[in-house]
Amino acid sequence: MKTIDTRDLIELRDTNKENMLADFNDKFNTNLDDYDEIDTYEPEEDDEEYEDFEDKKQDFMNHWYDELEEIVDIDRIEDEISEFEYGATLIDEDDFFDYCRELVDDIGDLPSYIENNIDWSGVADDLRVDYSIVTYKGSEYLVRD
Prior knowledge:
The protein has helices spanning 6-28, 37-40, 53-63, 65-80, 84-87, 96-107, 112-115, 120-128, and strands at residues 3-5, 89-92, 131-136, 139-144. The protein is an alpha+beta fold. The chain has one domain (3-144). Strands 1-2-4-3 form a 4-stranded antiparallel beta sheet. It starts with a strand and ends with a strand. 10% of the residues are buried.
């Protein structure tokens, strides 16, 4: 079953930002302290990096395209999930039925004569009302409101 903990997404985003910042500082011989400074950085006119800087910066951004896309995607879903920073679970929409069965199983062992007669798709439908849909990397995930 495919689930994602938002704390793992925070760690991934932070790692991408740190790696990009370190690479930017190395490539352009800067000492920026914050990832957000990359967007606004421009060398001084007398700096040897000044000539063709925009082209070089665009090449840099193209090189980091996937990581930038990841950062933007994570930032976007963070705005959609109120408990994002505390660890919300994203459940792949295709796995929600199985997730609901496991959720009920975690409550306790049900006798087989009850478990065999449960309308599991009805249970999943009823639980689904407490979840919102977010899109991450082109897939739909359910997350508890």
